[in-house]
């Protein structure tokens, strides 16, 4: 009886072996030499064909599931099945005030598409406003206040509806369109200029056959398609209607950071203007990535167009603000001071600094459509807590040709990589043992390392005013007993500043007495002289410093540069540091120290360990 063909193998060699086994058991081929005849070539062809078909079937199966799909078209299609539309490219936006100096009349209108120019990195960019704005003069001054402008070109594309063309599609023909700037209008016909504005549908529960809404979906080549209702869910377009698409095509993130703008052209015929910038350009970014779609689509589906849980808010914020690199959300009951009825949101942007007030207000307004009526969303800025490290490593000089300087540079690079890859987001916890392991793995010659940790944060004082400042690290401080290290300044240190309490105008610094009190002192021949022994308080358990009435008159340079902030160092109780709420951790490699030393035992130069030295495991 002939052997059955084994069809479970997909690998080329295994397929070929199975084919040979099958054919060799057939009486017709009992005398064939499958390795030395033309049959071997035919078997190669059959095996390759089977292998290709198996590979293609496997790839096809992968593209059927959101988790395993690789092609953007597949991911977008699967996301559409759960009602998720990927975000488009986003135009960089700025907020400006425009005063028209030579205007006259009872009112003045800035038409949509008024152009402003700017330069970023020696490259010119155009910004436009996205809506007509009319104002009346106040005391004879014509001011367009808090005007949002967007980088890019305002374009218009029109389609004439032909219901006999079953393949007609209303495609936006640019792949860098910012769909948040899209305006869709439908004109009755070429002979009837009556126009209706359609809005983007955000759900179907309230739609009927008269609802003037449009739907949006991503299609091939990162383009977007507009489509309309079917006469049941949304008003259908009719034969001869003219679909008018107005939108801004952008250069994505290229203009982020633009801070000065000039009018190109005129406003209502007037060109003498004064422009001030309220918020630099930010928020420009590319289309949503494949990994982001995979992450957001199922969470958006589970949120069901509402924001109740923390994950709901995270997903919704990332949908509303494409420039969000990371989002943290917590309820008012978990705030540093409990505030019930609020949900706090912190957003780390992909590019640019903290979000502008206008951007925050826009996100909050959009969120209120999804939030429970009794809950108020509040956006607060991220706060960075910096870590400085002192790392001393031992290495075996007999198994490496690298000198100590090269090894030190490589270790510092390892630390920098750890900071970039593992920290710098809201969930990036500093795990001391993981970093120590990475340092040891930097080079085979490195045998061990002792790495200690300090934290610091900045506070920005208002000069010449006695004010209260709270500096929260959200991690316990090292304080093994009362009066710990009192004579040497406890576990707190700072950069310099001057205070009004000292007539000699000495440069002052902060320390603590080991028992919960912050002190201000200056140095006389290296000896601490305390101007104020009760300058504030320190809570070693909660990791909080309060300067009760700090009256600073000037601030010393930091790292050789003029500064408007004071840097305050502390020694943590644990080498593992946790980011809490809106806190982000980052290692300051510029102020970290890496020192390498030959291990005298491993290199054979130490006699019975008598000359071997070790590094302290405690910060100083």
From TrEMBL:
<dbReference type="Pfam" id="PF21387">
    <property type="entry name" value="Gp6_C-I"/>
</dbReference>
<dbReference type="InterPro" id="IPR049026">
    <property type="entry name" value="Gp6-like_N"/>
</dbReference>
<feature type="domain" description="Baseplate structural protein gp6 C-terminal">
    <location>
        <begin position="309"/>
        <end position="380"/>
    </location>
</feature>
<feature type="domain" description="Baseplate wedge protein gp6-like N-terminal helical">
    <location>
        <begin position="12"/>
        <end position="84"/>
    </location>
</feature>
<protein>
    <recommendedName>
        <fullName>Baseplate wedge subunit</fullName>
    </recommendedName>
</protein>
<dbReference type="InterPro" id="IPR049027">
    <property type="entry name" value="Gp6_C-I"/>
</dbReference>
<dbReference type="Pfam" id="PF21379">
    <property type="entry name" value="Gp6-like_1st"/>
</dbReference>
């Amino acid at each position: 009886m002939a052997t059955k063909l084994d069809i479970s193998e997909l690998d080329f060699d295994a397929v070929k072996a199975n084919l040979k086994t099958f054919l060799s058991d057939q009486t017709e081929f009992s005398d064939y030499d499958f390795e030395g005849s033309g049959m071997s070539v035919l078997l190669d062809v059959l095996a390759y064909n089977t292998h290709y078909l198996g590979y293609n079937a496997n790839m096809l199966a992968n593209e059927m599931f959101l988790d395993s799909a690789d092609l953007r078209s597949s991911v977008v299609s699967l996301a559409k099945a759960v009602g998720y539309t990927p975000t488009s490219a986003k135009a960089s936006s700025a907020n400006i005030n425009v005063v028209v100096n030579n205007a006259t009349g009872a009112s003045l209108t800035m038409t949509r598409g008024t152009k402003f120019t700017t330069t970023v990195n020696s490259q010119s960019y155009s910004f436009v406003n996205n809506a007509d704005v009319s104002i009346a003069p106040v005391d004879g001054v014509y001011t367009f206040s808090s005007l949002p402008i967007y980088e890019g070109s305002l374009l218009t594309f029109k389609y004439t509806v032909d219901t006999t063309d079953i393949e007609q599609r209303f495609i936006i023909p640019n792949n860098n369109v910012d769909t948040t700037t899209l305006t869709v209008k439908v004109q009755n016909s070429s002979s009837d200029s009556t126009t209706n504005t359609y809005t983007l549908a955000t759900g179907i529960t309230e739609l009927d056959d008269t609802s003037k809404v449009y739907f949006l979906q991503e299609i091939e080549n990162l383009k977007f398609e507009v489509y309309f209702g079917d006469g049941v869910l949304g008003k259908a377009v009719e034969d001869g209607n003219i679909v008018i698409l107005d939108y801004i095509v952008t250069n994505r993130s290229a203009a982020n950071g633009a801070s000065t703008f000039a009018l190109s052209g005129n406003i209502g015929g007037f060109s003498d203007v004064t422009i001030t910038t309220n918020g630099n350009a930010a928020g420009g970014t590319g289309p949503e990535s494949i990994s982001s779609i995979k992450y957001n689509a199922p969470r958006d589906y589970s949120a069901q167009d509402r924001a109740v849980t923390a994950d709901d808010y995270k997903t919704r914020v990332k949908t509303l603000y494409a420039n969000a690199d990371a989002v943290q959300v917590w309820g008012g009951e978990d705030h540093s001071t409990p505030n019930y009825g609020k949900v706090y949101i912190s957003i780390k942007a992909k590019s640019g600094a903290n979000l502008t007030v206008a951007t925050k207000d826009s996100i909050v307004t959009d969120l209120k459509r999804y939030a429970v009526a009794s809950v108020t969303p509040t956006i607060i800025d991220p706060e960075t807590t910096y870590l400085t490290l002192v790392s001393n490593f031992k290495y075996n000089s007999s198994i490496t040709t690298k000198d100590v300087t090269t090894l030190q540079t490589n270790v510092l690079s390892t630390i920098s990589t750890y900071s970039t890859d593992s920290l710098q987001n809201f969930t990036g916890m500093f795990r001391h043992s993981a970093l120590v392991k990475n340092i040891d793995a930097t080079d085979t010659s490195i045998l061990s390392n002792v790495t200690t940790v300090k934290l610091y944060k900045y506070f920005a004082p208002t000069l010449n005013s006695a004010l209260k400042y709270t500096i929260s690290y959200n991690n316990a401080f090292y304080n093994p007993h009362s009066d710990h290290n009192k004579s040497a300044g406890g576990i707190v240190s700072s950069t310099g500043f001057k205070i009004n309490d000292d007539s000699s105008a000495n440069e002052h610094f902060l320390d603590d007495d080991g028992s919960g009190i912050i002190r201000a002192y200056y140095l006389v021949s290296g000896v601490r002289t305390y101007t104020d022994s009760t300058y504030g308080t320190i809570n070693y358990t909660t990791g909080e410093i309060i300067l009760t009435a700090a009256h600073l008159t000037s601030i010393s340079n930091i790292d050789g540069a003029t500064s408007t902030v004071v840097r305050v160092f502390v020694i943590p109780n644990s080498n593992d540091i946790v980011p809490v709420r809106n806190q982000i951790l980052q290692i300051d490699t510029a102020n970290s120290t890496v020192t390498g030393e030959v291990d005298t035992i491993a290199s054979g130069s130490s006699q019975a360990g008598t000359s071997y030295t070790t590094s302290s495991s405690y910060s100083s």
